[in-house]
Design goal:
It is built from 17 helices and 21 strands. By secondary structure, the chain is α/β, with parallel strands linked by helices. It folds into two domains: about 1-240, ATPase, nucleotide binding domain (Nucleotidyltransferase, domain 5, 2-Layer Sandwich); about 250-310 and about 345-510, ATPase, nucleotide binding domain (Nucleotidyltransferase, domain 5). It has a seven-stranded mixed beta sheet with strand order 15-16-14-13-19-20-21, with helices on both faces. Strands 3-2-1-5-12-11 form a six-stranded mixed beta sheet, sandwiched between helices. Strands 4-7 form a two-stranded antiparallel sheet. Strand 15 and strand 16 (about 295-300) form a beta hairpin. Helix 9 (about 245-255) packs across helix 15 (about 445-460). The chain starts with 7 loop residues before the first strand and ends with a helix.
Length: about 525
């Protein structure tokens, strides 16, 4: 494919913390990039809002990109946009924001989640949308309807980040199957339409959503004259349908087969595997996404992932390592993980349950919290660090088993991307605890790369999306299970980790109620 690199694909990732613009060759090499940060406002407990200035952030990111390269806008063959899923903004008929965007991690809508479970029913909602009651866009739109009715009535459209950016770049009001599915009100069996009967039952007009839903690879529009002037992109450049950030990240990691699981090992641990038909788990242990490959993607999550808990450890325990790192002029993580690696497997009896921000399947408790068991005076902070990594690996094993049980897939490979993919100790622990091969991606901008893969396929630079993934995929490092540790970790997982929280979850819920009763 080396002869094709005279042109570039622009992959845009508008995430919670910022917008990144990345230029890729058709071999998947990052040629140039730029970024601009976003701020998150929390005006009330449980709220997470953001000014819908994603178009301005994109302009800044592109300014930075073009200032650092000699590549010209005319050399960009297509644009693909990925985004923070189910974050949305209410807009008027001119697509001007009427209020701050409500973000994916906003949890103001518990009463609406309960209402959906009671009035619609968990099973009916799951069978209709692929998503059981939860903090998705649908519940937050219901919150607006009940708590800010004037704003709800004034809203012409509820736009996802992707939809907002596509409108500003092309003037078209549309979305993708993958993006729409994460809102919680897409007809999961008829993926080009909203769940009309569900929305009617909730008295939410369907015309408050964008009129057109397209599969990945579709041209959504072209860069308009106004957008070309604002962004520096060439007028007429195609903008191609892609998918949400997790789905694009899994593509970049190489997820194209049903015996693989893509894992985002960043702030959260998010798991996704493929299934050709919609396989509804009887216990709703996972949601169903739409993959750009045209199949379905079963997904589950651990809210507190590798980056989140390692950062907590650094902040709370690693003051001495911070000082040592400054004196030695090395990254603090180099020192932390060197010391952590010296702790024996099993952490001399210490075990961490990584429910620091609640737990989804199989317990579905927002009140659950992290636990550390087995402490003795012989343990050090380094034991805690390794116990965090092992605890996350145990929980990863459980989530993978839940995906296997519901889909019927036998998962052989873990395709890892995100910050944790660069932590060799974590990768090796993950392989040994789960008993599966781990392929850790070296690409730090995986979500933007996945968007670029979709865009390159959409303009027919590759005959199939699978070939785009294979040709543009990043290199990876392979970690195999340590045969000497498989039985050891298997006993700890099955006899302790897997059953412990079953026995204490009632006490944990009581602890939450008592602690908040003062």
């Amino acid at each position: 494919m080396s002869g094709l690199s005279a042109e570039y694909i622009l992959g845009i990732d508008s995430s919670t913390s910022g917008t990144k613009a990345c230029l890729w060759t058709l071999e998947g090499e990052l040629a140039a990039s730029g970024s601009s940060s976003h701020s998150v406002e929390r005006p009330h407990p449980g709220w997470a809002e953001q000014e819908a200035s994603w178009d301005k952030a994109l302009v800044k990111a592109l300014d930075q990109l073009f200032s650092q390269t000699s590549i010209q806008p005319a050399e960009i063959a297509a644009v693909g946009i990925t985004h923070q899923r189910h974050s949305f903004v209410p807009v008027d008929s001119s697509c001007r924001p009427l209020a701050p965007a409500i973000l994916w991690n906003d949890v103001r809508c518990q009463a609406e989640i309960d209402f959906l479970a009671e009035s619609i029913g968990k099973e009916r909602l799951y069978q209709t949308t692929g998503i059981p009651p939860g903090p998705w866009s649908l519940a937050k739109i219901l919150w607006l309807k009940g708590n800010q009715p004037e704003l709800f009535d004034q809203t012409d459209k509820f736009l996802l980040v992707h939809d907002y950016l596509v409108y500003h770049l092309t003037g078209e009001l549309c979305t993708t199957e993958s993006s729409a599915s994460a809102m919680g009100c897409l007809d999961i069996l008829n993926r080009r339409r909203w769940a009309d009967s569900l929305l009617a039952a909730l008295e939410i007009p369907v015309d408050k959503f964008v009129p057109s839903i397209y599969p990945a690879g579709t041209m959504l529009g072209r860069i308009s004259p106004a957008a070309a002037q604002a962004t520096g992109l060439k007028e007429g450049t195609p903008v191609i349908a892609t998918a949400g950030d997790q789905v694009c990240g899994c593509l970049a990691a190489g997820l194209i087969k049903s015996d693989q699981v893509g894992v985002n090992s960043g702030t959260s641990l998010t798991f996704q595997t493929l299934t050709p038909e919609p396989t509804f788990d009887p216990d709703c242990h996972y949601i169903l996404e739409i993959s750009p490959l045209g199949c379905y993607a079963a997904e589950t999550v651990v809210f507190s992932g590798v980056s989140d808990l390692c950062e907590w450890y650094r902040r709370v325990f690693a003051g001495l390592e911070e000082q040592q790192a400054q004196l030695a002029g090395v990254p603090v993580w180099e020192i932390i993980f060197s010391e952590t690696a010296a702790v024996p497997p099993g952490c001399d009896g210490l075990m961490v349950f990584p429910f620091f921000q609640g737990v989804q399947a199989p317990y579905w408790s927002n009140d659950a919290r992290g636990m550390v068991i087995g402490l003795s005076t012989a343990h050090t902070r380094h034991h805690v660090a390794r116990a965090i990594l092992e605890g996350l690996a145990y929980e990863a094993r459980r989530q993978i088993q839940l995906l296997e049980s519901g889909t019927g897939n036998r998962i052989e490979e873990i395709l890892l991307y995100g910050g944790g993919a660069r932590n060799q100790l974590w990768c090796q622990i993950l392989a040994s605890v789960t008993g599966r091969k781990v392929k850790a991606s070296a690409q730090t901008e995986a979500t933007a790369l996945g968007a670029a893969m979709c865009a390159a396929w959409g303009i027919k630079r590759f005959p199939t999306l699978e070939e785009a993934v294979t040709s543009m995929g990043a290199p990876y490092e392979v970690f195999l299970p340590d045969p000497a540790l498989l039985e050891f970790y298997d006993r700890l997982y099955n006899q302790v980790y897997k059953v412990f929280y079953d026995r204490v979850q009632d006490l944990d819920a009581l602890r939450t109620r008592l602690a908040s009763s003062l």
